[in-house]
Amino acid sequence: MAEAVRQALMQHGALLDAEALASASAIAGSVVAALPFLPQAQRLAITSFKGRWSELTSEFFRMTAERIARADQAGTDSVDESATTGPARPASRPLAERALELQSMLIEDWASEVAGSTYLEEKFRIPRSTLHRRQRRGEVIALRKGGRKHVFPLAQFVDGRPAPGISDILAAITNARLAWFWLTRPSPELDDRIPIEMLREDMVKDVVRVAHALA
């Protein structure tokens, strides 16, 4: 996505130096990649925003620069300690602590786009029998909604099939809600990459390893 943005900026003759062009492309690409995974309430708020985007963007860059500066300062202050104890890794909040929160939250508020088996059969051409068979085998993430109804996060599918590694993730994190929550958030153990995006790119080994460690 970042490369596509860079090409578009160049084609439109954007007057940016090489470093600014690279930064703008990376930021824009990250925004596009993150939007589908935002909670529904946040996406609706962004869609309905009628203010001045230039002012909001300036505020975003100001806050980002301040956060980077604080992080750099913290790194400088702790350099002597890290030299003796080794580099510190960001600590992830235990997944188990999220369970009760997720049970009480609406799926649409945190799981991004989901759909039932009828939609997947009509739009993704995944037969219901195939979908339910994969669900029984633990090969696809199904989130319970209401009584016995299940919905399926759309981002887990690639060409009509679950992304590689989904079954391994469910074997490690057996709570489907916890598994999908983790898959769709930046993971410190994966350099803040989003696990489901890595699975969609066939980067299965590292994702599964981290999932087992967290579980």
Q: Topology, please?
A:
Blueprint (H helix, E strand, L loop, with lengths): L1 H10 L6 H17 L5 H8 L5 H25 L1 H7 L13 H6 L9 E2 L1 H7 L4 H9 L6 E2 L5 E4 L3 E2 L2 E2 L3 H7 L3 H8 L11 H6 L3 H11 L1
Antiparallel strand pairs: 1-3, 2-3, 4-5
Note down, in words, how this protein is organized.
- This protein is mainly α and 215 residues long.
- It has two domains: 2-85, no CATH class; 95-214, no CATH class.
- Helix content is 56%, strand content 6%.
- It contains twelve helices and five strands.
- The chain has helices at residues 2-11, 18-34, 40-47, 53-77, 79-85, 99-104, 117-123, 128-136, 166-172, 176-183, 195-200, 204-214; strands at 114-115, 143-144, 150-153, 157-158, 161-162.
- The strands form two sheets. It has a three-stranded antiparallel β-sheet. Strands 4-5 form a two-stranded antiparallel sheet.
- β2 and β3 form a beta hairpin.
- The radius of gyration is 20 Å and the shape is globular.
- Mean pLDDT is 78; it is low at 78-91.
